[in-house]
Amino acid sequence: MKRSSFHPILAGIAALGLLAGCETPPPGATPDAGDGTTTVVTRGPVAPPVAERVAPLASPGPNKVLAIVDLSDQRLTAVRGFDDGRQPEQYHWVISSGIDRKPTPTGQFYVDFLSPDHVSSIYHVPMPWSVFFNGNIAIHGDPDARMLGQTASNGCVRLHPAQAEIFYKMVEDVGLRNTTIIVRQ
């Protein structure tokens, strides 16, 4: 077992769901009584889940990325267009989105910034390959990945880290303003 610092007041606030943003304690984290730490059970790597076949999207255009986050079935479809005649690159991934009291915002967004090795400022847990949109909401890797396929975050869109890296690099390659993220029910 690995132990990490976790302030008891933050534990109470987190339990009430009062923290803003998408940063949540790591799965399996439980505050210990009175000593100000959290117990985190670590497990081996989790293989990326396989998304069911999804109808292909049209190319978003040359050197553009389109990501469709479908909250109803916990899937993300990402497609990248090329200007050199190559067929569009397309991926379908299983995600975890926001829980009922901290839902993932819906709408159309552009990317605000990228952070390849972001660490949660609240829980000090890794959020690898973060693609931030709508302020403090991100599409990012979830090193634990056990909750993929169901709602689990405080608003973020979680992916397997290997898939998050692919998406991050697609966005980095075409640029922030050439990437559109659509989140729908």
What does this structure look like?
Residues 1-20 and 24-43 have low confidence and may be disordered. The protein is 12% helix and 34% strand. The protein is globular, with a radius of gyration of 17 Å. 34% of the residues are buried. The longest helix has 14 residues, at 161-174. It folds into 2 domains: 2-40, no CATH class; 65-184, L,D-transpeptidase catalytic domain-like (Beta Barrel). The chain has 2 helices and 11 strands. The chain has 185 residues and is mainly beta. A hairpin with a 6-residue loop joins strand 7 (107-119) and strand 8. The strands form 2 sheets. An 8-stranded mixed β-sheet has the order 6-5-4-11-7-8-9-10, with helices on one face.
Question: What's this entry about, in short?
Answer:
With 185 residues, the chain is mostly beta strands. The chain contains 2 helices and 11 strands; from the N terminus they run βαβββββββββαβ.
Order of the strands making up the biggest sheet: 6-5-4-11-7-8-9-10
Give the topology string: H per helix, E per strand: EHEEEEEEEEEHE
Mean pLDDT across all residues, rounded?
81
- The total tally of domains equals 2
CATH topology of the largest domain: L,D-transpeptidase catalytic domain-like
* Count of separate DSSP helical elements: 2
Could you outline the blueprint of secondary structure elements for this entry?
Layout: E1 2-5, H1 8-16, E2 30-31, E3 37-40, E4 65-70, E5 75-80, E6 89-94, E7 107-119, E8 126-133, E9 137-141, E10 157-159, H2 161-174, E11 179-184
Parallel strand pairs: 4-11, 9-10
Antiparallel strand pairs: 1-3, 2-3, 4-5, 5-6, 7-8, 7-11, 8-9
Active site: 140 (proton donor/acceptor), 156 (nucleophile)
Family: Belongs to the YkuD family.
Organism: Sinisalibacter aestuarii
